[in-house]
Known about the structure:
Elements: E1 2-7, E2 10-13, E3 18-26, E4 31-39, E5 46-52, E6 58-60, E7 68-73, E8 78-83, E9 92-100, E10 115-116, E11 120-125
Parallel strand pairs: 2-11
Antiparallel strand pairs: 1-3, 3-8, 4-5, 4-9, 5-6, 7-8, 9-10, 9-11
Amino acid sequence: xxxxxxxxxxxxxxxxxxxxxxxxxxxxxxxxxxxxxxxxxxxxxxxxxxxxxxxxxxxxxxxxxxxxxxxxxxxxxxxxxxxxxxxxxxxxxxxxxxxxxxxxxxxxxxxxxxxxxxxxxxxxxx
Length: 126
């Protein structure tokens, strides 16, 4: 089991920045990928970014490349999502997720992530 707790969401004006944190506890050593997803009311939860825990390789959805940066601190078992130049369309609930090591690991596939945080609201005003 892996427990995830997100923090860092809030209200920011367009063009501003936020940094989300996701503190993991439990069997974190068994995680292949840690990821961030986001969801708006009435829509599906979408992949945003992920990082391979072992070597730090990163993956992003096209619309956030160059705008968001995912990173990890192995010693703190924490994953971060630095979000810059925020736009109103980035408004969503952001979820942290952990994908255990298994066959068929996929850094961008929501269905492969077994553990989820409670979510943190990010609101970008225009």
